[in-house]
Amino acid sequence: MTQKGRMKPVKKSKAEEPELEPLCCCEYIDRNGEKNHVAACLCDCQDLDEGCDRWITCKSVQPETCERIMDTISDRLRIPWLRGAKKVNISIVPPLILLPVFLRVASWHFLLGVVVLTSLPVLALWYYYLTHRRKEQTLFFLSLGLFSLGYMYYVFLQEVVPKGHVGPTQLALLTCGLFLILLALYRAKKNPGYLRNPASNDKSLGSSQIECLNSKGQEKSKGFLGADTSGSLNNRTLKDDLKGSSRVSAGSPTKVKEDWCAKCQLVRPARAWHCRICGICVRRMDHHCVWINSCVGESNHQAFILALSIFLLTSVYGITLTLDTICRDRSVFTALFYCPGVYANYSSALCFTCVWYSVIITAGMAYIFLIQLINISYNVTEREVQQALRQKTGRRLLCGLIVDTGQYNRGFLRNWHQFSTLGTHPFHHPAEDIV
C-alpha cells in the first residue's frame, strides 16, 4: 500500500506539467531564453541608453559597449512570422536603405554624383576589409547585389520604358537575362564541395567499434552535468581514433602534416583548403566570394562563372538600352562621358546616375571574370595564386596578372576540359599531383 501511495503523486506531477504555449506571430524567445515581444524592442536596453548618453555628452563609447549594443539590436530586430517572429540579419538592412537614397541624391547635381559614386566603392571596400579581417560572414554584399539588380530593373521600368524607345523584344531579353542571373546565383549558392568529417559517416569503422567508443564516452561522462559533455567526449574519441588511422595510412609524417586539417579533424585531398570564414574544408577551393556569401569550390565553380558571364552580358545590354534612350544620336561610349542636358530633367539624371553605378559594378565584375578565365586557363585556383605570391613561387606574367604555378598546368585545352568536368565524376590526377 505504501508503494502504491508513493506512485500516485508521481503520476499526478507528470500529468500536471505545464505545456509550452505556442508563440504568436509577434513573440519570440530572446538570447536570454525569455519570451519577448516585437513591440518591446526599445524597452529595457541599458547599453543603448548608456551609449546615447555618452554620445550626447560627447564622451567616447567603449568598444565593449558597442558590441553589446549591436548584439542587442541583432537579437531584437525581427519581423512577425508564423509561430514566432523571425530574426533579421542586420547586415541586410543598410543596402535596402542607403542605395536608393544615395542614387537619388547623386542625381541632383553632377558634382554630387561624382562624390557619391566615388564614395560607394570606397565604403564597400572598407566594409569588406573590416569583415575579412575579423573572419566574419556577412550578408551585406549579397543583399547589395540582389537589391542592386532589383532596383536597376525597377528604374528601367519606371523611367526608361515609358519613353517609348525600348521595344517588347528588348524588354523581354533584359527580363530573361535577369531571371537567368538569379537562377545561376541560386545554383552557385549551393554546396561548393564541403568535406565532411569522417566521424559522422565513416565506413571504415564498424558498428561494434563505434558502439564501444560510445560506451567508453558514456562511462567517462558520468559525474558531469548535462548531456553535451558525453557527446563531446564521443566526438573527441572518434576524432582521435580517426586521426590515428589516417596517420597510419598516410605514410610519411610530412605528408600527414600537410594533409591533416586540425580544425576539421580530417585528411584533405589534393587542392582542398580550409575556409576560415565558413569554418570548413572545401574541395578544390578557389576563394570565398562575399557576393554569394559562400565559397567557390569544385561543385559550384562552373555556376559561378556562368553567373558572372550572364551578368556581364545583361548589364552591358541594359546600359546600352538606357543610354540610347536618354542620349539619342550618340554612341554608347560618347554618351557615357558626354551627354548634354541630362541633368535638366530629374528622370534622365536618375537614369544616368544608375548607368554609372552599373558601369562601376560591371567593371569590378569584369575584372573578377578576367582573373577567373586566366586562372582556369592555367589550371590554378585563386587560393593557390595567393599562396604562390606569398611564398614567391611560380611564374609571373603581365605584371603579376598571370601567375603560373606549373604544378597542375596541362595545357590550355586540357585545363578547360578538366574545368568542364568538375563535379560530374572524380577526376584522376597524375601521380605528381597527389600531395
TrEMBL record:
InterPro entries xrefs: Palmitoyltrfase_DHHC, PFA4/ZDH16/20/ERF2-like
What top-tier enzyme class does this entry carry? transferase
List localization entries.
Golgi apparatus, trans-Golgi network membrane
Q: Where are the bilayer-spanning segments? A: 88-105, 111-130, 139-157, 169-186, 303-323, 343-370
Specify whether Metal-binding is a keyword of the entry.
no
What keywords is this UniProt entry annotated with? Acyltransferase, Golgi apparatus, Lipoprotein, Membrane, Palmitate, Transferase, Transmembrane, Transmembrane helix
Major location category of this protein? Golgi
State the Pfam families in the record.
DHHC (PF01529)
Q: Offer an example of a GO molecular function term for this protein.
A: protein-cysteine S-palmitoyltransferase activity
What's one GO BP annotation on this UniProt entry? protein targeting to membrane
Give the highest taxon in the source lineage. Answer: Eukaryota
Topological category with respect to the lipid bilayer:
Multi-pass membrane protein
- Reply yes or no: does the keyword Zinc apply: no
PROSITE patterns for this protein: DHHC
- Domain Palmitoyltransferase DHHC as annotated: residue spans: 257-386
Of the GO CC terms on this record, one is:
Golgi apparatus
EC numbers on record? 2.3.1.225
Q: What is known of its domains?
A: The DHHC domain is required for palmitoyltransferase activity.
Q: Which family does it belong to?
A: Belongs to the DHHC palmitoyltransferase family.
Give the protein's recorded name: Palmitoyltransferase
